Amino acid sequence: EDQVTQSPEALRLQEGESSSLNCSYTVSGLRGLFWYRQDPGKGPEFLFTLYSAGEEKEKERLKATLTKKESFLHITAPKPEDSATYLCAVQVPYGGSQGNLIFGKGTKLSVKP
Amino acid sequence: KAGVTQTPRYLIKTRGQQVTLSCSPISGHRSVSWYQQTPGQGLQFLFEYFSETQRNKGNFPGRFSGRQFSNSRSEMNVSTLELGDSALYLCASSLSGGDGGSPLHFGNGTRLTVT
């Protein structure tokens, strides 16, 4: 069965302390990898799409990278407003009962001032 | 451009009742997917509709059903509610859905509590 695993489950950082979140996947046929941010009581907000190994995308303090087995979300000099749960999702060939977008369980990031 | 709109935001129902949730996708998006989110299981796929046809279905019992209208708006229905159905139900729309490579855009969900 296709699997997406995110680590760590929770991460506490001081403001300005850079770190990385990991998303590893075991799937048959990667079509794309998506990163989302979810705030409490809200739906996931789309951040990035990565399609092939070696690809990188940046947005403000966030940078996403992709290899053949995993993706990293690097957070540089985080601020308290970056606190949220970050979800990774892998798009696979259509038709499985998991749907074509398989989500990890997320990393809950807390940034303290 | 307006985002995905889900109504209602909150629902409280008792066991055995049924419920209908509504979703209006982003204008121009023809694919609508539904997910159930719980703290223990994360996001679990319910079903996907594209141009009024169900293209894919997750491993949920037949009490969970959905439909899509010609204007791409979608509804999902849960009959004979159980306590375990308490969750955040999320709707997402995309241009192509399936494995077309376009991202899903989510609404803020309907929080269903079954007592």
Notable traits:
heterodimer, A: 113 residues, mainly beta, B: 115 residues
**Radius of gyration over C-alpha positions of chain B, nearest whole angstrom:** 13 Å
Overall, the morphology of chain B is: globular
Low-confidence stretches of chain A: none
Distance between the termini of chain A: 41 Å
Which structural category fits the helices and strands of chain B?
mainly beta
Element order, helices and strands of chain B? EEEEEEEEEEE
Task: Specify the overall morphology of chain A.
Answer: globular
* C-alpha Rg of chain A (nearest Å): 14 Å
Largest β-sheet summary of chain B: 7 strands, mixed
Total DSSP E strands of chain A: 11
- Tally the helices of chain A: what do you get? 0
Class by alpha and beta content of chain A? mainly beta
Q: Work out the helicity level of chain B.
A: under 10%
* Biggest interface and residues each: A-B, 29 and 27 residues
Overall strand count of chain B: 11
Low-confidence stretches of chain B: none
